Amino acid sequence: MATQTITQEMKECAELCHDCARLCHQCSVECADMGDKSMARCIRLCLDCADLCELMAAYLSRGSEFSQRLAALCAEICEACATECEKGDAETMKTCADACRRCAEACRKMA
What average pLDDT does this structure show over 7-28? Predict the structure, then answer.
């Protein structure tokens, strides 16, 4: 398989992935600062989501032949992260959850 032509939809998905990664990092730091052990799953999911979103953005930006397959996993992790973040009351968590949902939707279109 050759690299894909980078479409506007791929560029937009990459931007959403970057935004999601940034907000997941912010959320994980804020949750860690709370010092509450019940936030451990949220922190782990935010870090996993951020890492995968950064990778997804890189794959999309270079037209990787594997971006379609990675997109399905990215959408799954974004959804899990959003669900966990929605359990919290902090504004950062709500913002992160919204970004994760937008990213998941865009990744599903890529998959």
Answer: 96
